[in-house]
Design brief:
Oligomer: single chain
Structural class: alpha/beta
Shape: globular
Strand order of the largest sheet: 1-2-3-4-5
Mean pLDDT: 97
Number of strands: 21
Strand content: 25-35%
Low-confidence stretches: none
Number of helices: 12
Radius of gyration: 24 Å
Length: about 475
Amino acid sequence: MSKKFDVVVIGGGPAGYVAAIRCAQLGLNTACIDKWLSKDGKAVFGGTCLNVGCIPSKALLDTSHKYEDAKEKLSLHGISVGEVNIDIAAMLKRKDQIVKNLTMGVATLFKANGVTPFEGTGKLLAGKKVEFTSHAGTAEILEAEHVIIATGSVPVNIPPAPLTEGVIVDSTGALEFSEVPKRLGVIGAGVIGLELGSVWGRLGAEVVVLEAQDKFLHLVDQTVAKEAQKLFTKQGMTIRLGARVTGTEVKGKQVTVTYQDAEGEKKEVFDKLIVAVGRRPYTEGLMSGDCGVNMDERGFIHVDETCSTDAPGVWAVGDVVRGPMLAHKASEEGVMVAERIAGHKAQLNYDVIPSVIYTHPEIAWVGKTEEQIKADGEPYNVGMFPFAANGRAMAAADTDGFVKIIAHAETDRILGASVIGPNAGDLCQQIVVAMEFGSSAEDVGMMVFAHPTVSEAVHEAALAVNNNAIHKANRKTKAKK
């Protein structure tokens, strides 16, 4: 006999496990299927984010940042230390322990909330039935009133650079280098490429980033992108734009990369090469042909604004649907769907989803960029404030970057914000909250910000929108169009 549930979730990453927990909290009999196996072959939940994505990469980013601080910057504070060394094995062990703690935490939350875990793969059949196949190969049918697809995404591979164990790797392999490469190549100057490149660059690798686009961080506000390129170059990262990789050749423990740029064909030799050109939806073997769910030509599942698919009672959330491939977007879609299944009228505001690049300095943004607002033809005002004029940033010797806030010239409503600098992700979140409540730049300018904090840069940028900044000279400018 088949097992019956109110909800079956296929996928146990930030979209799936959050959706399953929220469904269970709302009184729905919920199952969650996931196929992930840890390094030691144990079934774990948490998906890419917890296992080989957001969490382990941030562990390495923090370790490498502390190493660089100890080696290069403590002397600024009058602190003397002996020779600073990095134990790569210990760094990786710490990263793995953090991952283990969090994945065990998901299992604990499932137990606490009454979610039934299924370890293996799930395939959606017609009539909201799911064929579950365990890791041992046994199959059974799960019946549900609702099915939530949350199978996430996988790295995009490119024919000119096929993965070669230990030499040409994707984002997962880049988390496992046993030693610091002397020369590291990175294909792709996106979020993943810049973060992983900066990890190994801080630890001593010579990093060369090859980006096919002619613009650096083309989706980011270009004032911020230009500042980021300048700072990353100053840190020692070589960024080559308009560089399209055409081939690779592995010889021994090195790889020769051939690429084309405006000057013609060029070659580079690296000890390691990271392929970080983006991610694609993971839908292999996911659905039968008669299940009623449709996909677009890129493999994304078609959904409406509430994440409902073309098949009644079937939902899809996270990286497998339209929108930015972000863990927090995925989780909130999971919550929204759970609430809607329970009969609530939940909705997600896609206009105020923040994005963060966890380099140092961090880069974060929300809403529209100046380029997008200009293209829309809306009149606007810009307020900027540099961390170089912020007392707390000075005290921390962390003064690179600035806050930029853009508001409508007529209504003063905040249209977008970008931050490059210390704690950019956390500072940008203040503007996310303001935008969610339809705040004006004046609203933020009238709030009281604690002194001395780096968040005062947000306050001053909001004041600067209307030429009222206190701690920098205001430029009297007309609204832009």
